[in-house]
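U., I forgot to send this yesterday:
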Amino acid sequence: MLFSKILSKEKICFQTESKTSAEIFGGLFKNVFHIEPECCENLRRNGTVLYRFDIENASVIGDVFRKYKIETSERTINSEIIATNSLGVFTAGIFIACGSVNDPSKEYHLEFTVPEEKIANELAMLLRDIGVTAKIAVRRGQYIVYIKGSESIEDTLTFIGAQQCTLELMNVKIYKDVRNKANRIANCDAANIDKVVKAAMKQVDDIKLISQTNGLESLPDELREIAELRLENIDMSLQEIGESLSVPLSRSGVNHRFKKIAAIADEIRAGGAENEK
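Result:
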């Protein structure tokens, strides 16, 4: 009731987009005050249904204010009521009245839509007492007490008794972490493949240039062997080339020989440029 849309001596209005919350409110109100409030359903343009309870009977409203010690001046969380009940249950009631949580596969976000600034600040303090940091923003005249971060949301859901939701959120987080790691590995592998291919193509270009100008027979035996092996096996890694040599060589040793071939090719290119001048 404290977090309903309207709470005055003239009218109490509780509204929600959750059918479950509407059923809980109607059932609890009937159990406590022995009156079944009428629920109106309004279909919105976006297809969602708004469930609304309007209580305007002055006698019933008076009973509500007296029972919960609500002052007419401003809403405030009554510490005496919390002291005689479970804080977790009280917070769960607030969530049922005005809380919502986003699909964790898209975003980690839990919020309470609160009608007044004072109880918004009190709710933020209440959450702080259980170790959860909440922030406040204003949206369309309503105060939004919101929580970011999966761990804070998990703590809040656990505190209000929604352990199953906590487990589901944790499962989504694990899935997202595994998927992100797999994507990073795949991207890294793709980048490494591109790097290897570009290096191999550069080596082939250098070898072909030497073959067309000085001829591969001009190269020392160890360079000619590695050059011919590269031409015949463009897709081989440096390690595989090293293992295929007549005298096996380490990856760094193969790379060193390709650098020598590149230097020879660069000299040929430099000489050609000088001739053009």
